[in-house]
């Protein structure tokens, strides 16, 4: 039953009790009323006293009834207040039940998450134990490898000491032989010299004079806007050819220091130059991914060799035939071109980019210097790798052959200049200097025409000259104010030319 119904029933029950009590009181007073109806005289004072008593009782009954009515009203109000309180409690109980249900759901989710995290933790612990076991195993292997490495290093150092002793003996024999040859050849050289030109009687040899050590700057030429990355001399001539970031090829008279000719048409910065042995064609390697071939006499482009997919950084022409050209680009390829037909004959792909290339004197082998520091030899016809050697600890920046083709000079970003025997690829000399720092990945060094000296530029603007025989610096030329990028020696013995990042060319005598 609801609270209202309970209240109504309580009120009805109270009213019934009052009626019943009233009836009982009336029944109790009925003899008094009967007696009153008798003659008053006979009753006398007794009935009067009883009537007064009854009136008093009746008043008390009315007072009691009034008190009960007031009490009933208070109880009804308290019942209503209790009903409201019960409703509030029921609402609170409902909210608490909902909250309890939500909390139970969250607890279930957290329990499931805890189980997943526990499983993941157990998996991680098992993997950690496996990794720890592997680490222990690898630690043991590393310790064994270190011990073996130390033993190998000791053996290698012993072998190097023995090799150094043998090399010192060979150098002593070589120097003694050179001294004897010089002493015995003075008379022949004097007989062969005519107007300062020494004519060698060896088959295939070209005319050249002994190269003096440069000491002074003869001309300082503002050749290009921006850097000048490549310079070279025409064969048996004092004319200098230069290429720069301004996309132009310029030809200079080194006697007067004046500009004699300019070649246009290159669409990118010139990174390397070469010229055919008949001095008729100039080939430029460009940052526009192409090679450009000019006819020197007409000044017009004969060919534009396309095929590389990145900047072409090195180029050389065969020393046997002016028909074949080799190029290297930063697409990890070396290409051999036919100038008469104007297309590529062969492509060599290798994982390390090539910074410098040159042909051997017989035209059958390509020498390449790579970013990984290795010097590699390739067969021109098949493109097969013939041999390779770790020439430098950092990238190779330049390759230059001696006049007789037996020695190849390599320069590297490790600031070393190494001389290798082409037949065995063994190091026959290493040139270095405290202040010499190679300026870029395409810094070009050179060997003098008489194969006695090496010239190389430095990032501090100096040009260093080494004696190959003594492996010592014989001259340091300072005129440039920017990093020197390229050095080239005239085949006539002098002058020496150098170019820098500001586009300045200096000629030295």
Please provide a written account of the structure.
- InterPro entries: ATG16, Autophagy-rel_prot_16_dom, WD40/YVTN_repeat-like_dom_sf, WD40_PAC1, WD40_repeat_CS, WD40_repeat_dom_sf, WD40_rpt.
- The protein is an alpha+beta fold and 509 residues long.
- The chain has helices spanning 3-37, 40-43, 45-192, and strands at 193-194, 197-198, 217-222, 228-233, 239-244, 249-253, 258-263, 270-275, 281-286, 291-295, 301-305, 312-317, 324-329, 333-338, 343-349, 354-359, 365-370, 374-379, 385-390, 396-401, 407-412, 417-421, 427-431, 446-447, 453-457, 462-467, 472-478, 484-489, 496-500, 504-508.
- The protein has a domain at 214-508: YVTN repeat-like/Quinoprotein amine dehydrogenase (Methylamine Dehydrogenase, Chain H).
- The protein has 3 helices and 30 strands.
- A 4-stranded antiparallel beta sheet has the order 3-30-29-28, with no helix packed on it. Strands 4-5-6-7 form a 4-stranded antiparallel beta sheet, with no helix packed on it.
């Amino acid at each position: 039953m609801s609270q209202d119904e309970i209240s109504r029933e309580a009120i009805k029950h109270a009213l019934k009790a009052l009626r019943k009590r009233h009836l009982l009181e009336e029944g109790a007073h009925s003899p008094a009323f009967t007696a009153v109806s008798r003659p008053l005289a006979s009753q006398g004072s007794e009935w009067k006293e009883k009537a007064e008593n009854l009136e008093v009782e009746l008043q008390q009954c009315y007072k009691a009834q009034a008190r009960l009515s007031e009490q009933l009203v208070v109880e009804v109000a308290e019942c209503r207040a209790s009903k409201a309180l019960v409703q509030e409690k029921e609402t609170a109980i409902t909210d608490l039940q909902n909250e309890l249900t939500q909390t139970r759901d969250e607890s279930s989710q957290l329990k499931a998450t805890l189980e997943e995290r526990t499983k993941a933790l157990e998996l991680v612990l098992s993997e950690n134990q496996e990794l720890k076991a592997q680490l222990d195993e690898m630690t043991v292997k590393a310790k064994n490898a270190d011990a073996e490495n130390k033993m190998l290093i000791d053996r290698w150092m012993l072998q190097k000491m023995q090799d150094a002793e043998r090399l010192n003996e060979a150098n002593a024999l070589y120097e003694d032989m050179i001294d004897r040859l010089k002493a015995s050849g003075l008379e022949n050289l004097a007989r062969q010299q005519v107007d300062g030109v020494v004519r060698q009687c060896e088959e295939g040899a070209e005319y050249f004079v002994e190269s003096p050590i440069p000491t002074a700057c003869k001309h300082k030429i503002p050749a290009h806007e921006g850097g000048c990355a490549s310079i070279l001399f025409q064969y048996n001539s004092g004319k200098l050819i230069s290429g720069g970031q301004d996309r132009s090829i310029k030809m200079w008279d080194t006697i007067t220091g004046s500009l004699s000719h300019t070649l246009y048409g290159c669409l990118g910065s010139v990174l390397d130059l070469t010229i055919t042995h008949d001095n008729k064609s100039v080939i430029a390697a460009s940052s526009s991914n192409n090679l450009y071939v000019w006819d020197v006499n007409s000044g017009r482009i004969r060919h534009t060799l396309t095929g590389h997919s990145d900047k072409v950084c090195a180029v050389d022409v065969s020393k046997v035939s002016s028909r074949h050209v080799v190029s290297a680009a930063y697409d990890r390829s070396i290409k051999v071109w036919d100038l008469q037909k104007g297309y590529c004959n062969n492509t060599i792909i290798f994982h390390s980019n090539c910074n410098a290339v040159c042909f051997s004197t017989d035209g059958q082998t390509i020498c390449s210097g790579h970013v990984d520091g290795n010097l590699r030899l390739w067969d021109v016809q098949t493109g097969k790798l013939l041999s390779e050697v770790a020439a430098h600890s950092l990238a190779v920046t330049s390759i230059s052959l001696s006049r007789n083709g037996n020695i190849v000079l390599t320069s590297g970003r490790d600031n070393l200049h190494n001389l290798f025997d082409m037949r065995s690829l063994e190091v026959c000399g290493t040139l270095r200097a405290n202040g010499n720092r190679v300026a870029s990945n395409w810094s070009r060094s050179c060997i003098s025409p008489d194969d006695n000296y090496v010239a190389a530029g430095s990032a501090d603007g100096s040009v260093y000259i080494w004696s190959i025989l003594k492996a010592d610096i014989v001259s340091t030329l300072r005129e440039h104010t920017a990093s020197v990028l390229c050095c080239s020696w005239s085949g006539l013995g002098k002058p020496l030319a150098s170019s820098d990042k500001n586009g300045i060319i200096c000629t030295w005598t």
